[in-house]
């Protein structure tokens, strides 16, 4: 466990700032295959009021129409939904796949391999981070509880936020071990309730994190659980 706690590169690479980004470049919906699409600046504000009828649809249309995606050889986001209400993402280069809720937009955040978020509720997002490792199995770093405690205190939330690990568990899919943790991170003006799943494959340490404002957790919990459980790795 000491190797995880004392790894500056891991801390630097995996740090996920849960504060809403004031300005983010938004890629068109259905296009994680976009390399550098024409983009819009979208203001993300955690205090934005709930949707008015038709507002989300209008924003989505406005974000999609101005941009024409450029194809990438390494990453494809399919327009067809794998299950109702979700869109699948396949990254062939890094060997991972997951789904995210329909309506979320891809944004660019430095240090993250891929990020999708809701432009109305900016705390509702999913991000994937990939860094090199010489380990072959996540169990080499410790138990789900040990890794969960370390990640939420040193990596998955800013140091000025109070964190609490709610649950840590293990699952095995096609012979690969995944740890899933549930935690909350309290900032002065909001609390983010989040789920992360971590695993190792292809000489890489993968982390997928998704979450929502605590006030919307009851509504979003099932969707976010679907996102976490959909994250799987393949050999590349």
TrEMBL record:
Which Pfam families does the record cross-reference, listed alphabetically? PsbP (PF01789)
Which residues does UniProt call coiled coil? none
- Entry's InterPro entries? Mog1/PsbP_a/b/a-sand (IPR016123), PsbP_C (IPR002683)
UniProt GO BP: photosynthesis
MF GO annotations: calcium ion binding
Sorted alphabetically, the Gene Ontology cellular component annotations on this record are: extrinsic component of membrane; photosystem II oxygen evolving complex
Q: Where is the PsbP C-terminal domain?
A: 84-232
Return the protein name: PsbP-like protein 1
Q: Provide the species name.
A: Erodium trifolium
The encoding gene: PPL1
């Amino acid at each position: 466990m000491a190797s995880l706690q004392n790894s500056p590169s891991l801390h630097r690479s995996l740090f996920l700032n849960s504060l809403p980004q004031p300005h983010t470049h938004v890629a068109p919906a259905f296009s994680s295959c976009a390399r550098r699409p024409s983009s819009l600046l979208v203001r993300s504000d955690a205090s934005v009021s709930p949707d008015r009828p038709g507002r989300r649809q209008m924003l989505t249309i406005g974000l999609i129409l101005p941009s024409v995606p450029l194809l990438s050889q390494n990453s494809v986001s399919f327009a067809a939904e794998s299950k109702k209400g979700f869109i699948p993402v396949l990254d062939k280069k890094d060997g991972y796949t997951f789904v995210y809720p329909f309506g979320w937009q891809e944004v660019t955040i430095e240090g993250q391999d891929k990020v999708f978020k809701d432009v109305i509720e900016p705390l509702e997002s999913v991000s994937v981070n990939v860094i090199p490792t010489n380990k072959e199995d996540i169990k080499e770093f410790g138990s789900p509880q040990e890794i969960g405690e370390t990640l939420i205190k040193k990596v998955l939330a800013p140091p000025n936020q109070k964190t609490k690990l709610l649950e840590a568990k293990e699952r095995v899919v096609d012979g690969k071990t995944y740890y899933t943790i549930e935690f909350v991170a309290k900032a002065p003006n909001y609390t983010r309730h989040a789920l992360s799943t971590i695993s190792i494959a292809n000489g890489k340490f993968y982390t997928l994190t998704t979450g929502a404002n605590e006030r919307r957790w009851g509504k979003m919990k099932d969707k976010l659980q679907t996102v976490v459980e959909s994250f799987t790795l393949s050999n590349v």
